[in-house]
Design goal:
alpha+beta, Trna Endonuclease, Chain: A, domain 1, five-stranded mixed β-sheet, 3 helices, 26% helix, globular, Restrct_endonuc-II-like, nucleic acid binding, tRNA_endonuc-like_dom_sf, UPF0102_YraN-like, YraN family protein
């Protein structure tokens, strides 16, 4: 979360819960909402591999519900990041990780 705040994002929610599930972090900067899935494992590669298709679907459905609380709703600019944490506490962010 500190990485985002250092770059001017504000925390909207931590562990946001909705009917489809939980979003680890919801951040916002300049009208863009950033949904962050945090994955921890022994290595960054293992953490990244832990993000399953099922979790991605849950994340997308949860984000859809979350956006209902924003003035522009589903028209709100957004992206999905994945924050990877390895066994030594090293932090890496995959920005816009779900882009096609």
């Amino acid at each position: 979360m500190r990485v985002y705040m250092d770059h001017g994002h504000r925390l909207v929610a931590r562990r946001w819960r909705g009917p489809a599930g939980e979003i680890d972090l919801v951040m916002e900067k300049d009208g863009e909402v950033v949904f962050v899935e945090v994955k921890a494992s022994r290595t960054h590669a293992q953490a990244a591999a832990a993000l399953s298709q099922r979790q991605i679907g849950r994340l997308l459905r949860s984000a859809e519900h979350c956006l209902g609380s924003f003035p522009k709703g589903l028209a709100t600019p957004m992206r999905f990041d994945v924050a990877l944490i390895d066994g030594q506490g090293q932090f890496d962010v995959i920005v816009n990780a779900l882009a096609a």
